[in-house]
Amino acid sequence: MKRFLPIIALVALLSSCSPYQLVNSEVYNNADLASYKTFRIVTPEEGKLPPGMEMVTYYNIAAAIREQMVERGYTESPTSPLLINIAVTTQREISTEPALPPGYMPYNGPYYPYWMYPRYNYWTNYCANAQVITGIYKEGVLTMDMVNINEKVPLYSSSVATIINNGGSGPSQYRNLEAIAQAVEVLFSKYPVPLMPQYRK
């Protein structure tokens, strides 16, 4: 029986691993994210949905982000300076608007992060210092920016792969509500403001 224990432990470990991978998690401008008490999530009226995303998927992503923020003590407010912007990588050929002005793109791959609210409205001063994150350029990577939108200052960015389920022969589709909630949980896994005690597992 003893010789089977390492195998059982390995199977348990693999089965407990999340199917989602945190690609990056970075604080910018020495931001004190705990000092913000409110937040708001970008809406389609402020920009455009990524190609292929339906409203139901946007609502699922927004609901999962909202839950994570509320469980960290934030309150949602339409006048909050803390804007949460959302991007999903899609095939570059079907994207219609650049994430940054021409000349700033740090890669030539087939996938392209499509931001709901154009990122160049607040990211231009940080282009020179932005890290090239190879893993972000895979299909379906969900990226979240937190921005002090009043001052146009990036505060935090995090990315998780992947919220798209590619069935192989069929077209790629966004994952369901439960799967998106799991992906967003990984997206917040290194967020510098912890969950309030009553929400910790």
Descriptive tags:
two-stranded antiparallel sheet; 201 residues; 24% strand; 9 strands; alpha+beta; disordered N terminus
Give the DSSP E fraction (strand runs of 2 or more residues). 15-25%
From the N-terminal CA to the C-terminal CA, the straight-line distance is: 32 Å
Given the structure, what is the number of helices? Answer: 4
Q: Topology as H/E string?
A: HEEHEEEHEEEEH
Residues in helix, %: 10-25%
Low-confidence region ranges: 1-16, 95-106
Integer average pLDDT: 80
Category by helix and strand content: alpha+beta
Q: Specify the overall morphology.
A: globular
Q: What is the number of strand segments? A: 9
Q: Mind telling me the C-alpha Rg?
A: 18 Å
Biggest beta-sheet profile: 7 strands, mixed
Structure commentary:
With 201 residues, this protein is an alpha+beta fold. The chain is built from four helices and nine strands. Strands 1, 2, 3, 4, 5, 6 and 7 form a seven-stranded mixed beta sheet that branches. A hairpin with a 7-residue loop joins β8 and β9. α2 (55-70) packs across α4 (177-187). The longest helix is centred in the first third of the chain and has 16 residues, at 55-70. It starts with a helix and ends in a 14-residue tail after the last helix. Mean pLDDT is 80; it is low at 1-16 and 95-106.
